[in-house]
């Protein structure tokens, strides 16, 4: 039997919270699709800012979006130009009163999403995947993590046969509900070598539940 339980979904409502919070009687499909469009638009507009988390909260006439990024200066832009353009694009998409908050990720080395993005970026630039995963795991542990596990899968190094490379340090107790496990998946597109999948688990301690 494989371990297929999503580390975040497994802990929702216990030690993790939902990224989208709203109630929609009879409009679930429309709101869920709109959330996907919002996230896609944000990632396209501020990709260079290192998007870690997008939280969406709906009221009857207002939509609140909280954007957590590694580089808020890039997301805001000179004189707030970038954030104003993003607000206009989002307002046009949702048709509601919009409130956009941008927060800085204080410890990007302990964010699975940002770590996975960094690994994918290096693989796309033809870095050695095994070296990248090993060095990244060491940096995550130095940043204060109690454990980290990284997997990259695909035609690594341009080989004809796909394989999986893994790097792990410390402990990652996936079965413990109170364990604060951050998890993310990213895809590196390396041209003729095809796509390489990246998975990152980071154990950041325990939460009271």
What is the topology, as strand order, of the major beta sheet? 1-2-3-4
In the CATH hierarchy, the third-tier topology of the largest domain is known as Ribosomal protein S3 C-terminal domain
> Given the helix and strand composition, which structural class is it?
alpha/beta
* Strand runs, count: 8
Runs in which pLDDT lies below 50 for 5 or more consecutive residues are none
Reading off the top of the CATH hierarchy, the class of the largest domain is best stated as Alpha Beta
CATH superfamily of the largest domain: Ribosomal protein S3, C-terminal domain
Write up this protein.
This protein is of the alpha/beta class. It has 2 domains: 9-104, K homology (KH) domain (GMP Synthetase, Chain A, domain 3), CATH 3.30.300; 108-206, Ribosomal protein S3 C-terminal domain, CATH 3.30.1140. Helix content is 31%, strand content 31%. It is built from 5 helices and 8 strands. Strands 1-2-3-4 form a 4-stranded mixed β-sheet. The chain has a 4-stranded antiparallel β-sheet with strand order 6-5-8-7, covered by helices on one side. A hairpin with a 5-residue loop joins β7 and β8. α4 (112-124) packs antiparallel against α5. The longest helix is centred in the N-terminal third of the chain and has 18 residues, at 28-45. It is globular. The protein starts with 19 loop residues before the first strand and ends with a strand. The mean pLDDT is 90.
């Amino acid at each position: 039997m494989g371990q297929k339980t999503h580390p975040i979904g497994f802990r929702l409502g216990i030690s993790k919270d939902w990224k989208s919070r709203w109630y929609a009687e009879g409009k679930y499909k429309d709101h869920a699709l709109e959330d996907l469009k919002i996230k896609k638009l944000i990632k396209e507009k501020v990709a260079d800012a290192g998007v870690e988390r997008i939280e969406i909260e709906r009221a009857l006439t207002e939509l609140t979006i909280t954007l957590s990024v590694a580089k808020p200066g890039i997301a805001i832009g000179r004189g707030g130009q970038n954030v104003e353009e993003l607000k206009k694009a989002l307002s046009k998409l949702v048709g509601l009163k919009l409130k956009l908050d941008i927060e800085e990720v204080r410890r990007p080395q302990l964010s699975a999403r940002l770590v996975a993005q960094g690994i994918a970026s290096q693989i796309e630039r033809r870095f050695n995947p095994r070296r990248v995963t090993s060095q990244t795991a060491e940096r995550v542990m130095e940043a204060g993590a109690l454990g980290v596990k990284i997997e990259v899968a695909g035609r690594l190094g341009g080989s004809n046969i796909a394989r999986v490379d893994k790097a792990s340090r410390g402990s990652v107790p996936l079965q413990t509900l109170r364990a604060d496990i951050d998890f993310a998946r990213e895809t590196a597109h390396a041209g003729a070598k095809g796509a390489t999948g990246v998975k990152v688990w980071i154990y950041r301690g325990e939460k009271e539940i």
